Amino acid sequence: MSSKLAFTKMHGLGNDFVVIDAVRQHIELTEAQVRYLADRHFGVGCDQLLIVEAAQTPGVDFRYRIFNADGGEVEQCGNGARCFARFVFDQGLTDKREIRVETKKGIITPRLEADGNVTVDMGVPVLNPADVPFVSESDAYVQPLDVAGNTIAITAVSMGNPHAVQVVADVDTAPVAEQGPLIEHHPRFPARVNAGFLQVVDDHHVRLRVFERGAGETLACGTGACAAVVAGILRELVVSPVTVETRGGELTIAWNGVGTPVMMTGPAVSVFSADITLP
Ligand SMILES: N[C@@H](CCC[C@H](N)C(=O)O)C(=O)O
Questions:
Q1: Nearest CA to ligand 1 atom 8
Q2: Is the confidence metric ipTM above 0.85 for this complex?
Q3: Which of 44, 56, 70, 73 has the fewest CB neighbours in a 10 Å radius?
Q4: Is residue 82 domain-shared with residue 30, that is, in the same domain?
């Protein structure tokens, strides 16, 4: 049976989303329907689909769920968190400017700034390899990873979702398309991984490309930017706050060190709202 679905197309630095209000409309999507909505030729097109739901926990304002373009549900999404906040405020679902929202990996707190940007407390990064999850007998911040016969040096970080960050001389020539899928599916990352390629410009400025798990290379990745800055600070290559330049624009990431939360600030943009009939 086909059904009609209202959605809003949004993006954070070109990392694009189909956002669905499941507070005011009943919705249950199959994995195939998520893939259809994300398909750039046959559907709407997006890197991730976000479903906004009523909260299930006292003291929390909403729950939001995140699905990659491949249909898989994931734990966390930085650019999505900013778009979520802009969505619930602009759609009149809340009048709060600081919003507590539960994700698959805990509660995060986006705040709408007066200048239109959104700042998100993305929580404390997880560095213990087993919890990333990353298979390793060492808990060193820099670890060798064999990728098709080449040994690269990565820092494994979870921002709720897993990231492998490597430092490169120049992101424009980094082997993102070649190595990205190999790192994503590397057997030492049992939940797969987002592969970050980080170029240090100076103490407070980096460039970043991310080959995302379940979506391929995106124009920006918010959790990837958080993980990259955490990796850069742990490796003593950069100092907080750091401007992260992505192909879609800039994020500001601040982190005060191990055991403290990462703060991310950047834009969130609504493009259009429409209805679609699902197959
Ligand atoms: N684009 C996102 C991350 C989305 C999830 C990621 N692909 C994963 O599988 O963990 C961001 O802005 O953080």
A1: 213
A2: yes
A3: 56
A4: yes
